[in-house]
Each structure stands twice: as C-alpha cells, then as structure tokens.
Amino acid sequence: MTGVTKSLTGAVRGAVGVRRGASRPRGGSRTSNTAPRPTGGAVGTPWLYLAPALVVLGGLLVYPVYQLGLISFLEYTQAQVSGGEPTTFQGLGNYAELFGDGEFWRVLLATVVFAAACVVSTLAVGCALAVLLTRVRAVPRLALMLAALGAWATPAVTGSTVWLLLFDPDFGPVNRMLGLGDHSWTYGRLSAFALVLLEVVWCSFPFVMVTVYAGIRAVPAEVLEAAALDGASQWRIWRSVLAPMLRPILVVVTIQSVIWDFKVFTQIYVMTNGGGIAGQNLVLNVYAYQKAFASSEYSLGSAIGVVMLLILLAVTLVYLRLLRRQGEEL
Questions:
Q1: Residue 315: predicted pLDDT
Q2: How far apart are alpha carbons 138 and 105 in whole angstroms?
Q3: Could you tell me if 251 and 323 are in contact, meaning their C-beta atoms sit under 8 angstroms apart?
Q4: In 9-33, which positions are buried (b, 16+ CB within 10 angstroms) versus exposed (e)?
Q5: For a surface tag, which of 49, 106, 136, 251 has the fewest beta carbons within 10 Å of its beta carbon?
Q6: Which among 176, 173, 197, 180 has a CA at the least distance from the CA of 267?
Q7: If we measure between CA atoms, which residue out of 245, 239, 225, 217 comes closest to residue 20?
Q8: Which domains, from first to last, does the chain contain?
C-alpha cells in the first residue's frame, strides 16, 4: 500500500507540477518580461469597456443591497409605507430586537443544518454520477446527461409540485410502493425537511455533475492509468488522485451550493405551505419574507436579509482563506 501511495503522490505532483510550471514561468522568464508598461490611456481603456457591465451590476446588485441595509436601520412598517407615521432612524434597534427573539435563533439553526445536509447530499450525488459518466458508454451517458439537464431546467415551483404529488398521502405512488397508507410526509418536521431536501438535491446535482465531469475529463489519462496499474481501487483513485486535482473545481461548486442552499425559498414555501405547521419548517429566507410581507415589518425583514448576506460572505471568505493557507491556487 505504501508503494501505491508513493506512486499516486508522485503522479499527482508531476501532473500538477506540469500545470503550475506552464502557468508560472520561473527564472529567466521573469527577467525577460520587457513589455512596456501601459500608459494612462491604455489603463483607462479596459475600464471603458467594463463600464456598461459595471453600471448594470451597480443597478441590479449594489443599489438593492444599499436599500436593504438602509431600511434595516429604520422603523419601516405599514404605517410608514402608507404615510400615516414618519420614518424614524432606529440605529441597531431592529438588530437588537431580532437577536433577542428566540425564534430567530431556532430558525437560524434549522437553516444551517438544512443547508449543510443539502450541500453534502448534492456534492455526494453529483460527484458519484460524474464518475459514473466516465464509466458508461456514449448512449447511456447521453441519456443521463439529458435527464440531469431536464431536472436542472425544471422551474423550482414545478419541481416542488411534482415531488408533492409523488409523496401525496392519498394519490402518491411512493406511499403505495412503500405500503405507508395515508402517511403525510409534510406533517412531521423532519419528514418535511427530508422531502424538501430530496427536491433540492434533485434540481441541484446536475450543476455539480456536469462541472466535476468536465474536470475529470481534463485529468491526464496517464495519471489514472498509473494509479490503476498500481492496484488502486476506484475509491482510492478518487480520494488520492481525482479529488486533489479537482479541488479548485470542488471549491467552486461547494461555495455555489452553500449560497444556493442557504437561501432556499421556493421549495420550502411550496412544499410546506409557507413554513410548515406552526412554522416548524421555517428557514431564514421564508422567515424574512413572513416578517416583511405577512407581518408588514419591513425593517425586521431587511435586518434578516443583511444577517444572511453577512453569514454567506463570512463563510465564503473563511473557506477561501483556509484554502490559500494550504497553498491552493484559486
């Protein structure tokens, strides 16, 4: 087993070394870079080309985030919207009220656990099917790709409705196949979260599968052949060869999955009818919607949105910092 490990490590280092060597010329290449520095006009030209896109991004992203943060510091309810009372500055009052609410912490914990389960399940299913795509022939590979892309292209509302019909206590085929009678999957808290998790994984794994499959196809064939000749199992090849070489791709799909699954809204809202019985299946996105539009507490809803934004930014920055400490190129 030690020989296998050394061979795999050498093969991976060799392949990575070729790539890094190609992208980072050393020694003479650094001193031979005699390209003239761009002048003031040349420096401004790229920004001129980027200006239309930056204006669009500023209008679609920056300004809404600014308004979200501004409203979170105001007293902004239906009375202020209708003009019955003046808008007043509350400072951190909305955040103090939010953090003092026990329901907020319960919903936050449920959101973190649910998002983590969705991310792990999505990555496991997507990576397993990506490896499967490299093992099957062209026709089944094409059929699997089309089926996955069909699931990916299905709107979340439509997919959630179909999954509800599949698990319907009266007419759903799943209960008949399992002999569960009129068992309601959306009545219990855990079973409702599990049902929503299945739908989220079903519509999310195609992105992971296609991305990881493209990365596997880019791995040099001689590296995989060397590992197979050394007697490594398929799991050992994935763990010791493919996973280290695909780490930049896995970082991207992990961060994307964390962002998407942390702010799931449609599936929870449709499949649990707005958060389940007595709000037992609430997540932060649905909780913010209920605070803002069902209770007309727009400032509290905005404060929840700001908290979600900061959590996602912190998760992304911490994860990227850990990878940079390990010497990974992003």
A1: 82
A2: 49
A3: yes
A4: eebbeebeeeeeeeeeeeeeeeeee
A5: 49
A6: 197
A7: 245
A8: 70-100+284-325 (no CATH), 109-282 (1.10.3720.10)
pLDDT at 29: 43
Distance CA 322, CA 42 (A): 36
Residue 34, pLDDT score: 55
Provide the Cα torsion 190, 192, 110, 208; round to 10°.
110
Tokens representing 180?
A: 């569960």
CB atoms within 10 A of CB 309: 14
CA distance 221 to 133: 15
Residues 46-55: tens digit of each pLDDT: 888 888 888 8
Average per-residue pLDDT for the chain: 84
* Residues 215-228 pLDDT 10s: 999 988 888 888 88
Which has more confidence, 3 or 170?
A: 170
Count the helix, strand and coil residues of the chain and give each as a percent rounded to the nearest 5.
Answer: 75, 0, 20
Q: Are 265 and 285 in contact (CB under 8 A)?
A: yes
Helices (H) and strands (E) in the chain, counts: 18, 2
Return the H-helix or E-strand segment holding 74: strand 74-75
Q: What is the DSSP letter of 277?
A: G
pTM: 0.79
The answer to whether 209 and 148 are in contact (CB under 8 A) is yes
pLDDT > 90 in the chain, percent: 45
Residue 128: how many CB atoms within 10 A of its CB? 15
